[in-house]
Amino acid sequence: MPDHPFLLEAKGLSRHFGNNIAVNDVSFSIKQGEVLGFLGPNGAGKSTTMKMLSGNLAPDKGQILINGIDLLDKPAEAKACIGYLPETPPLYKEQTVSEFLRFCAKLNNIPKKQRITAVDNAIERCGLSDVSQRLIGHLSKGFQQRVGIAQAIIHEPAVVILDEPTSGLDPIQIREIRQLIREIANQHSVILSTHILPEVDMLCDRVQIISEGQLLFIDTIETLHEYMQSSALLLRFDTEISVQQLNAIDHILQSERLADNTYRVTFAPQHDPTQAILSKSLVEQWQLTMLMPEKHSMEDVFMKILREER
Predict the structure, then answer these.
(1) Which residues constitute the domain of residue 212?
(2) Which residues form the ABC transporter domain (predicted)?
(3) How far apart are CA 47 and CA 211, in angstroms?
(4) I want to staple 246 with a disulfide (CB 3.0 to 4.6 A). Which of 47, 153, 224, 255 is the partner?
């Protein structure tokens, strides 16, 4: 059980490089069992934030608490509660999986009597039993990624930070690593940095989006799904209808003509005008041939947040 209700707390983090503000007053927290997706375009400050959270870069301002321990005041004690997998796993490929993980156990100051158990547990949790005696350099990239995750969790850290963990993997390997991440989250907090938006949808409980060093969005995946709900309909008629006629229908906020007899109408999400459009079309004999919600992808929502919140 965690010693603190939040396994990680970032408070007012800022970092400058010369006159450039890489990260500006970023705050968030994460509890046990959560997977927090960390998104942002290139140059947004995402990598700088990850380096600060993992203790590889000191913030100019702010505080980082890992399981209630101040990372700046007690770096060794706090870092012992962190597991980190960079985008390129830090592997010694001339070693076998077991040899490498025994080395990692020693680096993490796991007592000698407990190292064998810690290595065995990491191997089992990451599905490495069948390859434990093979050289890491002879493994597929998917299995090498598993070894990288194993070294990040071997000391049972409170917080596991994963940077692009499925980058460069094939679809089968991606599915396996995603399943492993969800299993890890049952016992740890996981911060997942990724540019693959569907991965966020599949894995994360909460999402935060950073741009130009500032957090633009931090909320649950359910709230992000609400952004994805359609608030527009695509209509097509056999006869020509004026935009003014469509705008007169209850709950339609705006209409625009897209092509001959094809229109987009927008509405407030809580006031769907579908029934009013059907009734009006029947009364006026407009010969409605298409009524289809306009779906928003995760990419659409991501770009919309970037535009609106700046």
Answers:
(1) 1-81+157-230+298-310
(2) 8-237
(3) 12
(4) 255
Q: Are residues 221 and 310 in the same domain?
A: yes
Residues 218 and 305 in one domain: yes
Model pLDDT for residues 188-226, shown as the tens digit of each residue: 899 998 878 888 888 999 999 998 899 988 888 888 777
Residue 100 lies in a domain: yes
Residue 77 φ then ψ, to 5°: -65, -40
**pTM of the entire predicted model:** 0.78
CATH of the domain at 64: 3.40.50.300
Closest CA to 229 of 291, 292, 295: 295
Task: Map tokens 């930070």 to a residue.
Answer: 161
Can you tell me the distance from the alpha carbon of 40 to that of 195, in angstroms, rounded to the nearest whole number?
Answer: 7
CA atoms within 13 A on the CB side of 282: 6
Q: 104 and 200 share a domain? A: no
From 246, 153, 198, 150, select the one nearest 37 (Cα to Cα). 198
pLDDT in tens, 216-269: 888 888 887 776 666 889 999 998 899 999 999 999 999 999 988 999 998 887
Q: Please give the Cα distance from 47 to 37 (Å, whole number).
A: 13
**Residues near 147 by Cβ (< 8 Å), separated by ≥ 6?**
89, 91, 97, 100, 101, 126, 128, 136, 139
Residues 105, 225, single domain; the answer is no
